[in-house]
Amino acid sequence: MYQARVQIFLLGKPYKQVVLVCLAFLKIGVFASPVYVLNNPGGIKTITMFDGGGSSSGFTSTGLSAPAAITFGGGNLYALNAGASGSPSIIKYDSSGNSSLFANSYMSDPVALAYFNGNLYVLNDGVSGSPSISMFNSDGQGSIFAGANSGMSHPVSLAAGGGNLFALNETGSYETITMFDGNGTSSGFTSSGLSASVAILYGGGNLYALNAGISGFPTITKYDAFGTPSLFANSYMSVPVAMAYDNGILYVLNDGISGSPTITMFDSLGQGSVFAGVNSGMSNPISIAIEPVPEPTGFGLLLTGSGLVAVINKARKVARVVGM
Questions:
Q1: Distance in angstroms (rounded) separating the CA atoms of residues 11 and 2
Q2: CB of 77 within 8 A of CB of 53?
Q3: What is the pLDDT of residue 294?
């Protein structure tokens, strides 16, 4: 946070004005991104939308059949349906919540979604333990990105970033993360820092793993490019189930104890706070997605600073005119 104290004289009257030029405000306030949460209660499945201040509203309840995950990409929200009758599908939503079928092929027991470089990727647990990753272009045409024997075992979460895809694997008590390059070639990324992990996420040049915790003590582990882990956060979480990232802020979706779901947010230092509390329209939430809003460019920040300087210069001119 940057602070400039300016003494301004207007029409002979002194005013002390504290001008706060706060980049954190620019990111979280003015440029905050809408947040979407997928709810999977026993009855009607819904998607709840939150504005940048954490206020909720209903987004849609159509097109959801045994939903498993949501993600945002290319100006649209996507919902992955595992299919109540074993017929998986992906539903695409526009900004008004209108739905259309995006894809219904190249999927087998799908569990997660990720959007990267104009393509939508689906993580499949597979029939009889044959996991794979499918890729869909902007028209919904599918293909196999990574097939069986790709180093995955009971994958549960998918992340994309840094030119790679990452799959979180859970095999009994042994958990690993597999990395895929742009051609679908796999390699082991890490097996450390994982404890009853439920989700992974890429953001800000790092990979994050959300650990529910064997003893009920949730944590978030951060990995550098070499897979070296470090503790990122261990507070403001209660039965966490999913993560989302935008403009330097990490969001965690909590199912909560006794059905009290919340959304918490963490800054780049791992300091947490509550974004959306209980009674926010969520019910058995299972997935979270964020509509990216571009960060203010250097030119935009320059204009903001120029505007401030102009105000100060104008005040000085007025002060000289009135002889202050």
A1: 28
A2: no
A3: 55
Alpha carbons 168 and 280: distance in angstroms, whole number: 29
The widest CA-to-CA distance across the chain, in whole angstroms, is 86
157 shares its domain with 65: yes
Number of domains in the chain: 2
CB burial of residue 47 (10 Å; 0-12, 13-18, 19+): buried
Class of residue 56 by CB neighbours under 10 A (exposed 0-12, middle 13-18, buried 19+): middle
Which H or E element spans position 210? strand 206-211
Residues 235 and 316 in one domain: no
Give the model's confidence band at 36: pLDDT under 50 very low, under 70 low, under 90 confident, else very high. very high
> Do residue 130 and residue 64 come from a single domain?
yes
Is residue 174 within 8 Å of 184, Cβ to Cβ? no
* Mean pLDDT taken over the chain: 84
Q: Is the pLDDT of residue 108 over 70?
A: yes
**What is the pTM for the complete model shown?**
0.82
Strands of the sheet containing 99-103, edge to edge, are 67-73, 76-81, 89-93, 99-103
C-beta atoms surrounding 178 within 10 Å: 22
Flag whether pLDDT at 84 surpasses 50. yes
Distance CA 77, CA 216 (A): 32
Residue 61 is part of which domain span? Answer: 33-293
Residues β-bridged to residue 165? 160, 180
Residues 134 and 47 in one domain: yes
Query: What number of residues does the chain have?
Result: 324
pLDDT in tens, 217-272: 999 999 999 999 999 999 999 999 999 999 999 999 999 987 799 999 999 999 99
Q: Within 10 A of 174 (CB to CB), how many other CB atoms are there?
A: 10
11-21 pLDDT, tens digit each: 444 444 433 33
As separate numbers, helices (DSSP H) first and strands (DSSP E) second, the chain gives: 2, 26
Unique residue bearing structure tokens 């349906």: 81
Q: 168 with 223, same domain?
A: yes
